Amino acid sequence: MVGMDGRGNATIAWAQTDGPGARSIDVVERASSGRYGPVGVLANGAAGFVSGIAVNHAGDAVVVWNSNEPGASGMGIMAATRERNGPFGSPVPITSPRPGAIVGSVGIDNAGQALIAWAGPNDAAKGQSFTHVTPLQTGATTAGPAQTLRAPGMRPTAIGDLNGLPLIDVNAAGDAIVTWGSTGHDRATESLVVARRAPGRPFGTGVTIGTLKSEGTFDSAIGPKGDAIVAWDNPRAPVRAALASSARSPFGHAVTLAPKSEDSAIPAAGIGPHARAITIWSDLPKSRLQYAIAR
Questions:
Q1: Dist. CA 29–CA 269, nearest whole Å
Q2: CA 251, CA 245: separation in Å to the nearest integer?
Q3: Which of the pair, 190 or 77, is modelled with greater confidence?
Q4: Local confidence band at 96 (pLDDT 50, 70, 90 cut-offs)
Q5: pTM listed for this prediction
């Protein structure tokens, strides 16, 4: 996985394999000049995979991976951080090993605080998977307390539903959104849920912005002023999107971007400095990419 700072320097992290499982979690820096530095090892004997990387404008960075600890049951989540112009520190546990724990994504603000979104059981509800966000300051040796996100009328995300894993977006100021898939208490309603937070504040209650089937996919983005977009698709259905025009504005009604008869999929969303959002998706029958811009 790759992250890039504001000067064009890239941080690349991967799991080095040697037969079954991963032998180590490695990282390397590539300068904007194109020159690579030496390969560093973040963890040895980590039978897992790199699941997230984030780098802010100044070069603060965080790498997150899932790792099996010897003799432990389940998958644990670990992270390593780098303060700007410095080396990566020692791995920091984000969760203890537990069955079903898996990272969704990670973001970082310009103050060097990373937010790690992950799905997994909590200590009180075994066998059920919740959406959590854990803060980690670059340079810190321990992570902050995890916040478990909730949404009215929604059950925990089913373990193993990889398409519903939480996706987090963080802007430079620390505004953030988390998007995830969930099911209703009737076990039939399938929804796409979004929770938001202001810098330094906890996430609010999640709100449902659309329907997400188990085979559907979604993407999200947040702008510099907290404006945000979420785009999603469902099998044999067109891509839809919802916008929030500012950090204080709620998400508007979902808008269908493609013709209703189009089987579109795999949306990618982005938002620029002037609140112009874009969604790109694949028109599957015609094997072409399409896009829509919010003006």
A1: 27
A2: 8
A3: 77
A4: confident
A5: 0.90
Choosing among 3.40.50.460, 2.120.10.10, 1.20.1250.20, 1.10.287.70, the CATH entry for 2-214 is: 2.120.10.10
- DSSP of the chain: -EEE-TTS-EEEEEEEESSSSEEEEEEEEE-TTS-B---EEEEES--SEEEEEEE-TT--EEEEEEEPPTT-SSBEEEEEEE-TTS-B---EESS--BTT-EEEEEEE-TTSEEEEEEEEEETTEEEEEEEEEEEEETT-SS----EEE--TTBPPBPTT-GGG--EEEE-TTS-EEEEEEEEBTTS--EEEEEEEE-TTS-----EEEEE--TT-EEEEEE-TTS-EEEEEE-TTS--EEEEESSTTSPP---EE-S-TT--EEEEEEEE-TTS-EEEEEEETTTTEEEEEE--
Rounded Cα distance, 116 and 54, in Å: 10
Predicted local confidence at residue 164, as pLDDT: 67
For residue 117, the cross-strand partners are 105, 133
The answer to whether residues 10 and 28 touch, using CB atoms and an 8 Å cutoff, is no
Retrieve residue 138's tokens. 């670059």
Instruction: Tell me if 57 sits within 8 A of 134, measured CB to CB.
Output: no
Q: How confident is the model at residue 228 (pLDDT cuts 50, 70, 90)?
A: very high
Residue 240's pLDDT is: 92
Task: Name residue, tokens 């003799």.
Answer: 71
Q: How many CB atoms lie within 10 A of CB 259?
A: 10
Nearest Cα residue to 132 out of 150, 155, 113, 114: 150
